[in-house]
Specification:
Elements: H1 13-17, E1 31-38, E2 41-48, E3 61-65, H2 75-90, E4 93-97, H3 105-114, E5 119-122, E6 143-147, E7 159-162, H4 165-183, E8 187-192, H5 197-213, E9 218-223, H6 230-242, E10 247-250, H7 256-266, E11 269-274, E12 287-290, H8 293-306, E13 314-316, E14 326-329, H9 334-349, H10 354-359
Parallel strand pairs: 3-4, 3-5, 5-6, 6-7, 7-13, 8-9, 8-10, 10-11, 11-12
Antiparallel strand pairs: 1-2, 12-14
Length: 362
């Protein structure tokens, strides 16, 4: 597992289409060479013959596997929503399955291939154990879209898409810090499910970002074991509210709205885990931290539709360079959002090093 699940939640189709995206998945099928751009650098890969109807059955079918709740109204649902929205416009079919255990990932991928999918799309890198199926006969005529992480090896059969979670969370923390500074607050919260590498790293980067604005801030971090349990989410949020936090971050999972609802009642600000929900009215959100897998997948599907999604390459989404990931202050003044935008640009140029800022926490 990566330091964070690779995110890549729907939208901005026109903007994303302008971003040059490399691609995933080629197999034993004769393929043509393709040169694509990944974070500004040229990379060579291969486009499966006949893309997008790779298996030549006269229809295009996209198979989606997600390790999370595909009805969480956030990170995991965005991936399926992006596939459904794009497929509907193209007249394609989508077969989706959520809450896939990593131990079942390989068999789940094989099952998709047996159903004649042309593209296997993994919702997060937790399902990387499915990747060996890309070289098996059952999946010989499929392309593969895979969120990248440190434990996912690039192969000729898959397209990798990644971002830098440390940057995303540092920017989220910086935005939270600006809010805290305005409210003269020094207390913030962070709520996650399992205490795993990705969640602990996310919490540290979030704290580092806050302390860039409020150096004496205290960040209460709660790992309740299940990010999809609304009761546990509300319990965690209530404990933090009792401690006096002015803002909290429910990081991933189906309990996000339950936490936000309670925070709304208490007048505590809330950040989103991956999607733009500034237009949400019930519950409301104050900061959208946008690193949704659906946004990244939409760009990949555009290239897949055009027959240019190449396997054996990786697209690295860069904050401050690409349209995503990004942070959006809901109901912000132009000056307030400008501070976030400038912060992101400095990460894009390397002036701000997210990993170095996290390391300062000790």
């Amino acid at each position: 597992m990566k330091t964070f699940p690779v995110r890549l939640s729907v939208g901005a189709l026109a903007v994303l289409s302008a971003v040059s995206l490399t691609s995933c998945a080629s197999n034993d099928e004769t393929a043509e060479s393709a040169t694509t751009s990944a974070a500004g650098a040229a990379s060579e890969g291969t486009v499966p013959a006949g893309e997008p109807d790779i298996n030549g059955d006269g229809k295009v079918v996209v198979g989606v596997l997600s390790p999370g709740d595909i009805h969480d109204k956030g990170y995991y649902q965005s991936f399926v929503d992006a596939a459904d929205t794009f497929a509907k416009d193209q007249g394609w079919e989508v077969i989706s399955r959520g809450s896939v255990a990593p131990t079942d990932a390989l068999n789940a991928a094989r099952a998709l291939c047996q159903q004649g999918v042309d593209l296997v799309a993994l919702g997060a890198s937790e399902l990387s154990d499915a990747i060996p199926a890309s070289t098996e006969a059952v999946c010989a005529k499929t392309a593969w879209y895979v969120p990248s992480s440190e434990n996912v090896e690039q192969t000729p059969e898959i397209f990798l898409s990644s971002d830098n979670p440390a940057q995303d969370m540092l920017a989220a923390g910086y935005a939270a810090g600006l809010y805290m500074q305005e409210k003269n607050s020094t207390q913030a919260g962070f709520i996650a499910g399992p205490e795993a590498d990705y969640s602990t790293a996310a919490a540290r980067a979030y704290e580092a970002g806050i302390k860039l604005v409020v150096p004496d801030a205290t960040v209460s971090v709660t790992f309740n074991g299940d990010a999809n349990d609304p009761a546990k989410g509300r319990e965690s949020a209530q404990a933090q509210i009792s401690q006096g936090v002015s803002i909290t971050y429910p990081y991933l999972g189906g309990a996000t709205d339950a936490v936000a609802e309670l925070a709304n009642e208490a007048g505590v600000a809330v950040l989103t885990p991956g999607t733009d929900r500034c237009d949400s009215t019930s519950p409301t959100y104050d900061i959208s931290v946008i690193f949704s897998p659906g946004d990244y997948l939409t760009a990949g599907l555009e290239q897949f539709a055009a027959g240019t999604l190449a396997m054996g390459v990786e697209k690295v989404w860069q904050m401050g360079v690409d349209p995503f990931p990004t942070v959006k202050l809901c109901d912000a003044t132009a000056d307030e959002q400008a501070k976030i935008d400038e912060f992101e640009k400095k990460m894009g140029t390397g002036e701000i090093d997210a990993e170095a800022e996290v390391a300062k926490l000790g």
